[in-house]
Structures
1.
Amino acid sequence: MDKTITWISLLLIVTGVAGVFLTYSGVSKTFEHGMNAVSALLLLMGVLMLPGGLLRGGPPKVSVKQVVIVGIVVFTVSAALAGAAVVGYGPFRLLYGTGPAVGESPIKVFVSIVPGSWDPRQTENYVPKDIKVVLAINHTVVWSNDEDLDVAHTVTHDGGLFDSGLFGKGETYKYSFAREGLYTYHCVPHPWMRGSVEVVSIPPEQVNEILRRLNVTTTS
Ligand SMILES: [Cu+2]
């Protein structure tokens, strides 16, 4: 067995698995595809190299101690993965879906990404920066990229709940909030761009009363 090749291939496999896990953890859709391709390639290289390293110069002679160590590592990794699956951590969140699908609200809220948002010296970017919306009334927010130059931005939740991916000048991104909470978000290429949406709920009678007074008809 060739120790160097074996270690390199194990390192590639670990890096590859970690990379795939991270990219599916909702860090950012913007980098997901590129990162995944690189991680998958590392993983593949590791898997292809491993037998070469292990079997070079005849089958490896292993001691009981080595078997025990490998056993402990395999057990720990399996237990960690099983635990992650149970609590829906990282990529396993996909097993539990993304929460209830929610329709668009009768009233939409518009946030403008104003010209010059790409400039870190400019304090105005998402305008208005911090908004409050009410479930069933105006929980659908539309962000529009109003740059006058060809600059793409993202609307990316800090916790990975939603991510627009890059969208260019003149384009919009729409998201409907399903639950109460404070949602802070940022722009991936310009991390100084930050905004928040506070989502609150009120009793259904009040919702109906407000919509009736505003003369807004719902389609449900
Ligand atoms: Cu941006």
2.
Amino acid sequence: MQANYDIVIVGGGMVGGLLACALGGGPFKVAIIDQAAARAIAAPDYDTRVSAISLASQAMFEAVGAWAGMQRRRISPVREMQVWDAAGTGRIEFNAADMGEPCLAYIIENSVIQAALLERLHQHTNLHHLCPVEISEITLADDHARIALKDGRTLRARLLVGADGAQSAVRRAAHIEAPARDLRQQSIVATVKCERPHGAIARQAFLSTGPLAFLPLDDAHHCSIVWSADTARAQELMAMTDQDFVEALQTAFGDALGALSLAGNRAAFPLALSDARHYCAEHIALVGDAAHTVHPLAGQGVNLGFLDAAALADVLTSAQSKQQDIGSLRVLRRYERWRKGENLVMVSVTGGFRYLFGAASPGLRQARNLGLTLTNAAAPIKHLIMRRASGLDGDLPPLARRAAH
Ligand SMILES: Cc1cc2nc3c(=O)[nH]c(=O)nc-3n(C[C@H](O)[C@H](O)[C@H](O)COP(=O)(O)OP(=O)(O)OC[C@H]3O[C@@H](n4cnc5c(N)ncnc54)[C@H](O)[C@@H]3O)c2cc1C
């Protein structure tokens, strides 16, 4: 049994989901496939995985009609960010009011994002969602890509999009290399209950072993933590009893939110920086973690992926309107040129931060503390950093541009 599509997206995660929604109602017949069954949200418990969502990503959710579904579930606005060096006096604060915005970002559970995107994509008749399905083989011919599924079905596509994460099978099938630098760190994530209200403030302490972030959830006394630490320390933290872990957390973070306790399980993720040599080949395009991975300290990974998805949707729709071949390198390189430079900057910046704050040398420590203090005092520079991190600047795809507000 063979089904013909214009576009097959492998990976129905957050980035694949947004890409599908951006193509919803358009001129293409699209299939989106995933090996995993759609995750149910175990409300009222918080998902251990959350993402800091930029204002640009929020604008994209709104533009594709998925924002209301997230609001209906659970979102948490961030009104202030505080970042400090635990080994010094350096500190920087960002405030939404200074930017003339109601908030700087949103903390949203990954399962909420995914559920709202899936709900939206199911409303489009040109999108077919196949899950769970397993791929047995991907083959590339001169004028199409062919995906054989283990259940015997075959999908044929003019364009195959890899939205299948850091270990992308689509990237492998296209023989695209993605050199990765193991950061020898792991991020531990967990939901934490705090004695004092978080006040919609995202806090991040740079410890010598890596950054520790407290991200505010919709309940004033709950935060999601992302504790990135050198591998040996992370393994030690994961092996601890809950009580020992909370003690270590309290010592590392201090008293800003009063007494802390765990409100769920811990999970650890190894960290690597990577950037695929190419984002496209004939009949192939890569988006999200399939194309690049960054350190979570800046909360940018999936936000970059959403911008990839919006840029690719824009390039494909415009090529189709000019009757150009959407699987041709000529068209796909427009997407690559648009996104690769921007993503590479973030791969380098987050790698640089990890090095700068991991350095034990007293000279470097003094320099970074002075840098934080000076930047904190320089309103125009702060404004620039904030606009960039919120995704309000840069070469944005139309879907990410906000209506004047
Ligand atoms: C601890 C941590 C915290 C983070 N915090 C943030 C943050 O605050 N903000 C932010 O912007 N980013 C953050 N990130 C990064 C973010 O999580 C990733 O960038 C994002 O999940 C990438 O999404 P994706 O859809 O590209 O890939 P994935 O989330 O990896 O999804 C890939 C999908 O493809 C499917 N798939 C894989 N292989 C196949 C196959 N062969 N066939 C079919 N389906 C397949 C999978 O089942 C999955 O659904 C964080 C990362 C970590 C580790």
3.
Amino acid sequence: MKTIAEINQKIKDGDITVLTAKELCDAVRSGESISVEDVDVVTTATRGIMSGTLAILSFPVADPGVFSRAEQVFLNGVPANAGPCPNEHLGIIDLVVHGTAERDARYGGGHLFRDLIRGAGIEVAVKASGTGAGTDAEITTTIDIDDIPFARMLTTRSAYRNYNAFVNPGETLSTIFSVADFKGNCSEAMFGGCGEINPLEKDAGTIGVGTRILLNGAVGYVLGEGTRSTSVRRNLSLFADMHEMDGSCISGFVTSAGPDLINSIAVPIPVLNKDVLSRASRLDSEIELPVVDIRTRKEIGRIDYSQVWRSGSDPLVTFEPSLCIHCSACNVKCPTGAFTGSEVIDDLCCNCGHCASVCAGEAFAAEMGSIVLRGREIPITLRHSDRRGAIKLADDLKQMIERGSFLLAEPVQRLGELI
Ligand code: SF4
Ligand code: SF4
């Protein structure tokens, strides 16, 4: 048995042993025997589409007395919800901005958050009432993150304990789970979840309210379970300060049903005892992946994560410009905007594989693989999760712990317990 206090003392003493979840799984696969004495912390991570994300922003836009209430606010054209505090007469606006809010089909809350975090100038348009002259005021200004004293990101449903694979047995349709239309007749499959490196999948009850985590590169905390979290498939609600975030960890993601966003989350698992180590050692082949009918969301089969994240294969997607045959209309509708037509911007690419699935030439390459459902092999055309990016996040957290710049926090309450 170890305690979190003892593990933190080892971090302070520079005597800590940290393995990433991938390193632990690789060791297990190679037959190595790892005991509780051999490892103090296992770092886990997930990165992918996480719709339930919002930003809470509060900042001044006018001198006190100019207006009494903000009625409508747009940031780079993305609609924000004014409130909850009306801040009468102070010239300050409090806002809630949803990650899925849309300016248009290609730009939404996720794009806005990334622009903000990267320090870009953001155009603010406010329709305000109570000007004293009896007329409404229109205030426009440009701000950046340094002009926003309070900028907090909150996730309402994130870091699911893995997810689903989807197929469409019916007609072609548009959905938030696809980039182009989702083809029918089970001719393609899409899936989410980082399998054996996923935080909640690897945890035997150490994560709880108050657990310290990384959200988009910033130190943050677990608020508790997220919406629609259940005992068999938990997810987390998290928060962190947007000023501390790394813009390369977040991006917009355009689905065929509108804009969404990509988040990055890393969580340390303290190896307190044998049960924790045993759970953290689970491999892709031991983790089930339900296959779901996209139309009804009903399960129609069950596989495991070793089918979609094949051992030894690299989840990286590559682009070789010399192999582009310059089609008259390029098929690639890159959901993050990483593909410009001539190059791929590394820190925007989430290795979703859409490009490799639709490229008419051989410019893009990825080992996308396939799932086998009722004896039928169905090619994977889109990943909702970026396992390669998550492996890097887990490694980044490992290095922070080894450097002594990240201590573990004792949760104040277990997940699933009533407050
Ligand atoms: S579909 Fe592929 S080969 Fe054709 S223009 Fe696009 S990247 Fe180039
Ligand atoms: S894998 Fe391809 S489609 Fe997906 S984000 Fe990267 S470049 Fe864009």
